[in-house]
TrEMBL record:
Heme c binds at residues 60, 64, 109. Transmembrane segments: none annotated. PROSITE patterns: CYTC, PROKAR_LIPOPROTEIN. Binds 1 heme c group covalently per subunit. Residues 46-131 form the Cytochrome c domain. Gene3D superfamilies: Cytochrome c-like domain (1.10.760.10). This is C-type cytochrome. Residues 25-45 are annotated as: Disordered. The keyword Electron transport applies. It comes from the Bacteria. GO terms for molecular function: electron transfer activity; heme binding; iron ion binding. Keywords: Electron transport, Heme, Iron, Metal-binding, Transport.
Amino acid sequence: MKKICITFFAAALLISCGNKDNKGSAAEENKSAAESSKSAATGMTAEQEKGLDLITKSDCLTCHKVADKSTGPAYTEVAKRYAGKPEMVDTLAQKIIKGGSGNWGTVPMIPHPQISEADAKTMVAYILSINQQ
């Protein structure tokens, strides 16, 4: 009887610990579903949310506001100026990384070399989508 109980508990222990891959997969599916429902609630795509997150974590909001002119132009004005010009994503991404002046007045935009080109493009894509939401 003792051997049967030990065998039973050992088997139960192995079965309960042996299925870790499926649990991680379920956790990833739950995270993905949560992100999808969050996107649906905000009306933004996952890419737009990532752009907003990158902007929030950077120092962009020091000089830019969504709807009001500050030191730099409002994001709504940038979106309006470059509406329907997808070729500007690369140009504006480089402006974020390298800085520049003259497009929106005399105050120069400081360079942000620590931001990757991919992240800068994601940020620009979010900004250009603002008036479409």
